[in-house]
Amino acid sequence: MRPSLLRSQLRLLLREPTLRLGALVLLLCFGYALARGRAWALADAEQLARVQHDVDAAVAQKREEVADVEAGRVRAEERPFAGSPLDYKVAAALPPGPLAALATGQRDLAASVAEVSLWGRSDTVLTRQSLADPEQLQAGTFDAAFVVVYLLPLLVIGLTFDLLAGERERGTLRLVLSQPISPAGFLLAKFAARLVVLVVLLGLFGVAAAVALGTAVTVALLAWLAVAAVYALFWSALAFAVNTRGRSSTANAMTLAGAWVSLVLLLPAAINTVVEQALPLPSRMVLVGELRAAENRAAAWIHDHPELTGDDAFAWARGYYRVQRTIEEETAPRFAAFAAQLEARTELVRASSWVSPPVLVHEALSELAGTGPARHTAFGAQVLAFVDSLRGEMAPRLYAGRRLTAGEYDALPRFTFVEEGPAQVAVRLVPPLGLLVVTSAGLLLWGVLRLRRGEPPVSGPQVG
Amino acid sequence: MLRAEGLTKRYGEVEALAGLELEVRPGEVYCLLGPNGAGKSTTMNLFLGFAAPTAGRAWVCGLDVQHHLIESKRHLAYIPEQVHLYPHLSGAENLEYFAGLGGSAVSGPEVAALLERVGLPAAAHHRRSGEYSKGMRQKVGLALAVAKRARALLLDEPTSGLDPRASFEFSRLVRSMCDEGVAVLMATHDLFRARDLANRIGIMSAGRLVWEGGSGDLAGEDLERVYLEHVRRAAEEAAA
Amino acid sequence: MIGRIVRHELRSAWRDGRIRNVVVLTLALLAVAVIVGATNVRALQAQREEAAALERANWLEQGPKNPHAAAHFGQYAFKPISGLALFDRGVDRYLGSAVWLEAHRQNALVHRPADDAPAVQRFGELTAANILQAIGPLLALLLTFAAIAGERERGTLRLLVGQGVRPQALVLGKLVAAMLVLAPLLFVALLSAAALGGWAGLPRVGLLALGYGLYLGCFAALNLAISARARSSSAALVGSLALWVAAVVAVPRIASDIAAWAYPTPSEHDFFAQVARDIKQGINGHDPKDSRTEALKAGLLARYGVKTVEELPVNFAGVALQAGEEYGDRVYDRRYGELHAIHRRQADLRLALALLSPRLALQPLSAALCGTNLAAHREFAAAAEEHRRALVRRLNEDVAQHPGASPFEYLAGPELWRELGKLGQDDADPSPADLRGLAILAALFLLATSLALASARRLHVDP
């Protein structure tokens, strides 16, 4: 393609009122999403800091109680439970990624902080007593990922549905094609001009995001924008292919709107339905009942084995702790089955994202923003591993009745989330995104071949 | 310059053009007359490569259109019945754009000179072309033909809907291009304009050339009478 | 005249293959959604019954223990699922399904179905309600976008008006025809839902039909208004599609976002930390728990005219527990009250924004009528809380009635457990649903129709 041709198409496109309006609306949406996302991410970070602070303060107070006893300021009998291993608590937090403002992902739904101690059981560590407004959760946030996944294709469609038909219906196509230029070349130039504009719009958003979030233009941000660009490429290529069928602009608009509804609304909902029907989860309610039955049995068992609890100040704590472990052991197979089914669901969704670009792109955008399902799953697993290690450290003390000393409080384990390496993320995301690029190229090629094969599309569907 | 060689086009059962033989030489205006559906537009489309011939060839400047779809259009300019421009661009911008498509970029002063030459008032150069009359849009079309230094010009019903004065101005411009050696093929219903402008006239009916003659052949004869008679005769033959 | 227009339009719609295909496709989707919904609801009901029976057995078999220990063991209550949830799951997926009723604490419900669902759920669910809310307007669009603009392009509009057809009658006729084409979809979806739900909620199904009818009518009328004013049918299509995207996809999101922005919900950490502070330091911050207990003790000793707690004819621990419980109840009432007020303000704001999108009026209405909205959830939570308070009071009373050497030495047995019933609110009639959405939809429909008629009055017959 000659650069002059692309230039002239760009100039023509920039004069188009549809583009000006569409670009303005898109940038406004991006701006709103960015402002909201930024405020939300800041509030989220503050919230995490507050939880961290409150938990640390509670532990510090416990430490002071021990220190008081150790220093002889308070008599030990007055504080029989001071230094109880059950009192040590850690706030295990999933830090918001630097790009969290760009995609809410799972962050408004899944737990991103857990208070870890010897209390409770593994199954309840991440269970939330959520107070969030369910309608907000159901509607979803108006984040930049939403603007990309839902609204960007609509701008693409608005700019491309009459790529060819518009020229024909306005009557300019005959004059255009009487110039020494091939229909495919002409259409490709128009297509490229639109792609350039879309990339520039995404670039503008990227710069705005970098400024608003106070980060430099990082690799992650570039990758985020690249995913959005690939998605725009897919929709443009689809629109290009639809245009080469030579139908009217109304028919094209309907076809593309239908494709949007099918791909963005219906297919993901259908995937959701298939996943839930094909891989039903064991009932949480029944699991609760089973846990409680196990609790009754464990309580009776510990009642019959007073030697396991002892009779010092920690007797009750020991009994409680043993009961919880017994319940966990007894119900472990049930939870394993539950987890296996969840894993199978994740796999099925991942497989289905190969055929559903919006699902794929939505997941990729949230993964890159650090709010995706994989990162939350990893967080859950790391919290549970941390709970185990904490128990490994504390249980012997509890059983032996050894109190924590003030000095020990400072050396106890803390939780740090270990991020997944970029290579692992890439391994997961690049192949399906690559397929999306290949599909787009295929659609373009198909369209070009179609234009090459037949007579120039000057007279529309009914030749004669 | 323009040559049709046994040019045939069938759409399914319908024969739109049947073995047309035709040649337009440089500096000559050839007018194609004929009722609607006679094959005039098909001829134009075949010269433009908008349709592929079922048989025969269309030559533009010695290039077989079918095998040189792009190259042949470097030498060919086309003014459709309605010159549709981008309404939100000015005439000058349209000219610049269309000329650029073919790779014959024109600069600002050239554009002004071209539009000047085809008689578009200077005040209109930078007005939205959506406000132009048909005649003004056609002038932009002609300017485009001049800009690309076309050696052959296809005109499809150029004067329909023009008032007599605009029609006259248009003929003058076409004539002046002809004088520079451009070959003009014009399809029209306007017998008066054909008589006025053409060096040669062809009458088509049902995809065939049923009469051909130079302007001298007509001498004192009435073109309307010749036209009606040949069209009627062709229709009778077809019925028989 | 209108009758003739309607008949003509119906015939054209029937002959339009595109419309027929989309109607058939939508019907198929609705059928799948209703069947899947019914299966899910049945499964959930069965699971809930199983869990409730299991839980009852757990409560009864907990063995002899001090009533306060039993209060800590507590009971679990499982939220019932309404029959019409098969039509519209509302916000049910984002609300907990089980609540632990224990001493001292008014817990929120846990185990939201959404917690265990893959991330793709955020794209929405394939329920009949969602299909009607999202695809229904598209169907209305297909039926109406070219109604006037197309006739104008074909030149038939000039002919019609020339023959004395009043443009308003034309628009009304086309509106009625569009509604008649859409009506079977509504009725098929709603009647099958009602049938599978056991016909119990028939009056509610009627209201649903009305709501959805007005909703689709809004879109049909607005599209007709656009069609009457558009330059071409292609422009009308783009305009109507833009309206659809804004009203169905974008505005509902922005509205919830704005509502959450205007009235932020506290995090659960902050909320429960505040509750703990209130209980420890007093609601006003100057009435710490220890001094409350001291005051209670002093009052009780004075009342019975004794000097020490041991001399009291009641077990002071039980009395103190109940007093603490009641103080906690006051704290919870106040803080949950504030939280609910925030949710209410959010809902009101969203409803006010329904002027921009009828979906914002329909969504809460539909969920309310199907018993899957926040109000239905809260009703269950309130019943569960009432039950919890009665349960804990009875257990504390039992402690109080058994004075002894050490406060928690006394053990109660199965008789007491049996006496304390389970939460029964299954057969309770659903409370009246919030019908404000219906009024808003009716107003919007009238507005849209008058807009269409106004456009008809200034109709251009030529392109």
Summary keywords:
heterotrimer; A: 464 residues; mainly alpha; two-stranded antiparallel sheet; C: 463 residues; three-stranded antiparallel sheet; 16 helices; elongated
Description:
The complex is a heterotrimer of chains A (about 475), B (about 240) and C (about 475). With about 475 residues, chain A is mainly alpha-helical. Chain A has one domain. Chain A is about 70% helix and about 0% strand. Chain A has 16 helices and two strands. In chain A, helix 5 packs parallel to helix 9 and helix 9 packs antiparallel against helix 13. Chain B has eight helices and ten strands. Chain C has 16 helices and three strands. In chain C, helix 2 runs antiparallel to helix 4 and helix 4 runs antiparallel to helix 9. The two termini of chain C are about 25 Å apart. The chains are: A mainly alpha (about 475), B alpha/beta (about 240), C mainly alpha (about 475). Chains in contact: A-B, A-C.
Largest interface: A-C, 85 and 93 residues
Largest sheet of chain B: 6 strands, mixed
Structure class of chain B? alpha/beta
Bulk shape of chain A: elongated
How many helical elements of chain B?
8
CATH class assignment of the largest domain in chain B: Alpha Beta
SSE sequence of chain A, one letter per element? HHEEHHHHHHHHHHHHHH
Helix run count of chain A: 16
Oligomeric category? heterotrimer
CATH topology of the largest domain in chain B: Rossmann fold
Structure summarized in a few sentences:
The complex is a heterotrimer of chains A (464), B (240) and C (463). Chain A is an all-alpha fold.
